[in-house]
Amino acid sequence: MMGMFFWAFVVGGIICVIGQIMMDVFKLTPAHTLSILVVAGAVLDGFGLYEPLIDFAGAGATIPITSFGNALVHGALQEGEQHGIIGVLTGMFEVTSAGISAAIVFGFIGALLFRPKG
């Protein structure tokens, strides 16, 4: 039982340390760091590596922001298998909050259409 808490603490801590290193050493903004960690979680789920990490670390893998990328891809792939291309588009809305998913989609579209300043 204690081992479960230990590994959750270690894995969650490592994810946080990676984010802190990205900001301190590489001088990335919090927004860049957040985006990279979400994409990392999505890529890991795409290769089938995030679910074993969740099984191993529990809350240490489900609480950090990488889990959000995992949830988006996991939902899209799951629904894509059942409903085809429409399932890919609707899957992330089904598994994650529609408001958060919509913010990501519309934010991405806005970034494609407009030149960000800053």
UniProtKB/TrEMBL annotation:
KW Transmembrane (keyword) present: yes
Signal peptide start and end residues: none
Lineage of source species: Bacteria, Bacillati, Bacillota, Bacilli, Bacillales
Protein name per UniProt: Stage V sporulation protein AE
Chain segments annotated as transmembrane: 6-26, 33-50, 56-73, 85-114
Record-linked InterPro entries: Spore_V_AE (IPR014204), SpoVA (IPR005562)
Pfam families found in the cross-reference section: SpoVAC_SpoVAEB (PF03862)
Top-level division of the source organism's lineage: Bacteria
Keywords linked to the UniProt accession: Membrane, Transmembrane, Transmembrane helix
